[in-house]
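The instructor's notes for this session suggest beginning with a concrete chain rather than abstract definitions. Hand out the sequence below and ask the class to guess, before any prediction is shown, which regions might be ordered.
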Amino acid sequence: QLKAKHSVVTKSYSYGEMVTGIDGVVPDSAHFWAFLVNGKMASEGAGTYKTKAGDKVEFRLEKIDE
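After discussion, reveal the predicted structure:
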């Protein structure tokens, strides 16, 4: 679990929590923390995703496409 091993800041929205900072790294307005599972963008948020055996979970800074 990310929160168990890292300093994590989240913001609550009507659809759930969004990660806004990890270990003091806060993206600028052109980037966000992407949540990936097995190399692909997750179809749901990290707060509700249930990991399965063998899943590789990753948070990566990504540029916001406008």
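Then share the key points. The longest strand covers residues 16-22. Residues 47 and 64 are 21 Å apart (CA to CA).
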